[in-house]
Design a protein that fits this description.
The structure is a single chain. It is built from 18 helices and 30 strands. It starts with a helix and ends in an 8-residue tail after the last strand. The chain is 34% helix and 24% strand. Helix 9 crosses helix 13. Strand 12 and strand 13 form a beta hairpin. It is α+β, with helices and mostly antiparallel strands and 701 residues long. The protein folds into 6 domains: 127 residues, Rossmann fold, CATH 3.40.50; 156 residues, Topoisomerase I, domain 2, CATH 1.10.460; 124 residues, Topoisomerase I, domain 3 (Distorted Sandwich); 127 residues, Topoisomerase I, domain 4 (Orthogonal Bundle), CATH 1.10.290.10; 40 residues, no CATH class; 84 residues, no CATH class.
Length: 701
């Protein structure tokens, strides 16, 4: 019969993480004496059916088990009873610390026990080393998360009922999402109020010997001059004698060095993935999570986390990783490509700097070596992260540049040339992709001939609408939100139909403008960027143990409560008027209306709820369906918001095309022709063959 001592020897240590994928990876690293299971995220939270905050007792939160987590909690308790020791190994950030604290409470563990382990990368060495240095739960970090959660609950659960009562049901408002919406709407106001200003340019081509090169008008008699109108252009051109040579009056040659960018933070990774890979912010974070938690690389290596923790605002890199990168560069590219000293990049002033920058856990796991193992999405994002990190430890790119001023009768044209002398970091990662612009050998006193000149009228352009990438940048730049909040914030304002995506641009909807106007008028602090950024700073100070979390909530809640009481009595109900659709219901004959729904406008019968006939609003492109010849070709949106074209008679006709049909057929095979956007304009082509009509150049007026 086994003794108590032998039973305790057979007991395993229990490790609790968030993710099942991460659990499998870590269990392999720790060996047979450990059992690793997942909490599958948070197991306790504030109740959905009520505010869940005791305002008379220092904002004490009322936590309950999350619905659907009963079996998980039961399993955690069962395994904890059998365990020799319980370790809490959730992610190394505020949410992770809060999850560990909630699990400890659910399992009746001691808050002060040395049972909290964290690691920045899911690799064997990092994980095993973290278990040598367990610590107690950091209550300052937990309190920072609690303060954010409580403030977000107060704002959300106070504003949302007002929006339901005064605007329409199903709406919501939040602290960070309201600021994000305001940024989008303010940009739209800038665009609408923008007044373009006229300006002109004079481009010229000069010739020395047999080589031609381009140049631009710079100024007159040594002073830079703008060209505000055509009259100014005519005065400049009147000074030029086309039969007379120009003279090179000044040549400046120098060497220019371009330094590599820092390794990725959460924000810069989301921005580059959006620009280069066309990934939405949520998609980027989902793929990054997979790379962090671990990918099975085969029998020899097993499951390995390929990148460090992906929620970070730090540009700092560990000396060990820098040394490995230097060694790799010496071996693969040569000493001239490796930075002589480890690089140190400056963080933003409000960066928490809790974790390293995002980097590969080993540069020796090259993207190409993993290409057959990773999915296409994983490979593309991993390659981006790997290349950016390796480039950050490389030498600068070196360019030989030339600037020459060319003059005749006081009229000065300026030309610039640039030629790469040494590739440096651009051999691995180039975020600007400069092109060589080579000039002939130019020396002061040289004579050159004017081959041709071209004067053009331009108008200044309004600021561009935000893309997901530029909105993330704006939120970070203004100190609004933190790495973990960017993707869910942008996702929320799209799901609520406060904004919509047109191509890659974020455009506010009528509903978004109504909500923003209401919040800005009655709750100005909520959409005040400086006010929101200061809260983030206060939360950071709570995490650092410099501020009391209850006093921080006090500071923001009391002014908000006054605004809330005032708004409840003063806000009048917003009437979103239904518009006549201009045709009758095909079921009951009553007039159809254009209504505003959660996902945009739609047609609905005016006799609702007696008649529930609804129809989507579609945009006709003015072409008859090339398949059935009866329906109209209409513009539609896929589930991923991608534009495509189909027949209005669907499902009777299943015609579909990603490109817009133009109503003509191909002269070669009779297939319908489509138009496709290119950099040079709209191209007409046959999807079935080689027929193509290039865009016509605009004739000079």
């Amino acid at each position: 019969m086994p003794t108590k001592t032998s039973k305790s020897r057979n007991k395993k240590n229990l490790v609790i993480v968030e993710s099942p994928a991460k659990a499998k990876t870590i269990e392999k690293y720790l060996g047979r004496n450990y059992r690793v299971i997942a909490s599958k995220g948070h197991i306790r939270d504030l109740p959905k059916s009520q505010m869940g905050i005791d305002f008379d007792n220092n904002y004490k939160p009322k936590y309950i088990s999350i619905r659907g987590k009963g079996d998980t909690i039961k399993e955690l308790k069962s395994e904890a009873k059998k365990a020799k020791q319980v370790y809490l190994a959730s992610d190394p950030d505020r949410e992770g610390e809060a999850i560990a604290w909630h699990v400890a409470h659910a399992l009746n563990l001691d808050d002060q026990a040395q049972n909290r382990v964290t690691f920045n990368e899911v690799t064997k060495d990092a994980v095993k080393n973290s278990f040598k240095h367990p610590r107690s739960i950091d209550m300052d970090t937990v309190n920072a998360q609690q303060a954010r959660r409580i403030l977000d609950r107060i704002v959300g659960y106070s504003l949302s009922p007002i929006l339901w009562a005064k605007v329409k049901k199903g709406l919501s408002a939040g602290r960070v999402q309201s600021v994000a919406l305001k940024l989008v709407i303010d940009r739209e106001k800038e665009i609408k109020s923008f007044k373009p200003e006229e300006y002109w340019t004079i481009d010229a081509e000069f010739k020395k010997a047999r080589k031609q090169f381009k140049s631009q008008f710079w100024g007159i008699n040594g002073k830079k001059q703008e060209l505000p109108n055509n009259e100014a252009v005519k005065k400049v051109l009147a000074k030029i004698d086309k039969k007379q040579d120009f003279e090179v009056i000044k040549v400046v040659s120098r060497e220019r060095r371009r330094q590599p960018a820092a390794p990725f933070t959460t924000s810069t990774m989301q921005q580059e993935a959006n620009k280069r890979l066309n990934y939405r912010t949520r998609r980027t974070m989902s793929i990054a999570q997979q790379l962090y938690e671990g990918i099975n690389l085969g029998n020899r290596q097993g499951t390995v986390g390929l990148i460090t923790y992906m929620r970070t605002d730090s540009k700092r890199t560990s000396p060990v990783a820098q040394a490995e990168a230097s060694k790799f560069l010496h071996e693969q590219y040569g000493a001239e490509y490796a930075s002589k000293n480890p690089r140190h990049f400056k963080n933003q002033e409000d960066a928490q700097d809790a974790h390293e920058a995002i980097r590969p856990t080993s540069v020796y796991r090259t993207p190409e070596s993993l290409k057959k193992i990773l999915t296409t999405e994983q490979y593309r994002l991993y390659k981006l992260i790997w290349s950016r990190f390796l480039a950050s430890e490389m030498t600068p790119a070196v360019y030989d540049t030339v600037r020459a001023d060319i003059e005749q009768n006081g009229v000065i044209f300026r030309t610039t040339g640039s030629k790469m002398k040494f590739a440096g970091f651009t051999k691995v990662y180039d975020n600007q992709q400069e092109k060589n612009v080579e000039l002939p050998d130019l020396n002061e006193g040289d004579k050159v001939k004017l081959a041709k000149s071209d004067n053009k009228q331009h108008f200044t352009l309004p600021p561009a609408r935000y893309t997901e990438a530029s909105l993330v940048h704006a939120l970070e730049e203004n100190g609004v939100g933190r790495p973990s909040t960017y993707a869910p914030t942008i996702d929320t304002i799209q799901r609520r139909y406060y904004v919509k995506l047109e191509a890659k641009s974020i455009v506010p909807t009528e509903l978004g403008e109504i909500v923003d106007n209401l919040i800005e008028k009655f709750f100005p602090d909520i959409v005040n960027i400086d006010f929101t950024a200061q809260l983030e700073t206060d939360l950071d100070q709570v995490e650092d143990g410099k501020k009391n979390w209850v006093k921080v909530i006090d500071k923001y809640y009391h002014p908000f409560k006054k605004e809330l009481d005032k708004a409840d009595s003063e806000i009048e109900k917003v009437q979103i008027k239904d518009e006549p659709a201009g045709f009758n219901c095909d079921i009951c004959g009553a007039p159809m209306l254009i209504k505003m729904g959660r996902y945009g406008k739609f047609y609905a019968c005016s006799r609702f709820p007696d008649c529930r006939n609804t129809k989507p609003i579609v945009k006709k492109v003015g072409v008859i369906c090339p398949k059935c010849g009866k329906g109209d070709v209409v513009e539609k949106k896929s589930k991923r918001n991608r534009k495509f074209y189909g027949c209005s008679r669907y499902p009777d006709c299943d015609f579909v095309s990603w490109d817009q049909p133009i109503g003509r057929n191909c002269p070669n095979d009779g297939h319908f022709l489509v138009q496709k956007k290119t950099k040079n304009g709209l191209v007409i082509l046959c999807p079935n063959g080689d027929y193509r009509e290039e865009p016509k150049e605009k004739e000079d007026s």
